[in-house]
C-alpha cells in the first residue's frame, strides 16, 4: 500500500521515510492538499495531511470519490478538517493528540526573550559593525507577571519556565491544572490576566469560543509595555485589531509563530512575489513584531513523535481500532 503525505517539509521527509520503511510505501509531497491538488490523491486509501491543508467538504468529497478511506493528520490541531463532512462520507480521521510540549513552550519563550532584549535589531546592527546600545535596553523577567491562557501540557511547560525565571503566574483555563497551582499560579478571568500580565502567551485550541480571543477589547486591557506571544493558532488573535493597537503605540512587542490567514503563505517562498495580504504586510513593518512561519513545533524530538504517532494511527485504522487520536471512525 502506498500512502501519500502532503505538506512535507524538507527536513521532515527523511524522518517520514525512515518511520514508514518496511511497513508502508510513502510518497512525500511538499504541496498542500486542497480542492486544487486533491486529484493527486486518487487511488490512495490513506493520505497524511498537514496543518495547513484545507480539507473542506468539497475536498473530502473528492478524496472519498477517489478511493481514500483514511486521513492521518500530522498535527494536534484539526480545525482545517470538516469533521461533519468526513463522518457523512465514512472517512476515518486521526490526529496526533500530543507530542513534546517542550518544543512549543521553549519557542514561545524564545520569541519573548528575543523581543524583550531586542536581539533581532541588535544582530542587524552588529552585522553592519554598529555596536551602539542605543534603543536596545530590555527588562528583567524576574519579578514580572506571566499570563498563560491555556494550561494544558504546553501551557504548563511555559509556566514552569516562567517559574524558573522567578515570575508571578496568572492562568486561565476551563479546568485548573494542579501542577500549575503547585507552581504558585493564580487562576483568574481573562480580563484580569490581560490587565496584569507583562507577558501573555496563548496556548488554547482554536474553537468558535476562542476565535479572536484577543480582540480590540482585550488589547485595550493590556499594558502598553506588555509582550503578546502566540504559538497556538492564528485565529486566536484579531490581527486587524492588533495592527490598530500597534499603530497606536501599544505593546512593547508581539511574537507570532502563527497567523490567521497563513494558509497558502506559510511554508512557501514568496520572496519574489508581491505580498497581497495587506494586513500581514503591515504587520511586518513594525520593528517590535517578530513573525516566524509556524515553526514552534519543528524540533527533531517533536516531529519524530508526530510521525511515529501517525504510523500508529494508520496501523490502528487498518486493524479497525480506535485510540485517543481518533476523530472519526466509521468502523467503530
Description:
The structure is a single chain. The protein has 332 residues and is an alpha/beta fold. It folds into two domains: 2-99 and 299-328, NAD(P)-binding Rossmann-like Domain (Rossmann fold, 3-Layer(aba) Sandwich); 101-291, NAD(P)-binding Rossmann-like Domain (Rossmann fold), CATH 3.40.50.720. Helices cover 34% and strands 15% of the residues. It has twelve helices and 13 strands. The chain has helices at 13-20, 57-65, 83-89, 101-116, 119-127, 153-164, 178-182, 190-196, 216-221, 239-247, 278-283, 300-318, and strands at 2-5, 25-28, 46-49, 70-73, 92-94, 145-149, 168-172, 186-187, 199-202, 227-230, 253-256, 289-291, 326-328. The strands form two sheets. A seven-stranded parallel sheet has the order 8-7-6-9-10-11-12, sandwiched between helices. Strands 2-1-3-4-5-13 form a six-stranded mixed sheet. Helix 2 links the parallel strand 3 and strand 4 (70-73). Helix 1 (13-20) packs parallel to helix 12 and helix 4 (101-116) crosses helix 6. The longest helix is centred in the last third of the chain and has 19 residues, at 300-318. The two termini are 23 Å apart. Residues 8-325 form the D-isomer specific 2-hydroxyacid dehydrogenase catalytic domain. One of its GO terms (molecular function) is NAD binding. This is 2-hydroxyacid dehydrogenase. Keywords: NAD, Oxidoreductase. Belongs to the D-isomer specific 2-hydroxyacid dehydrogenase family.
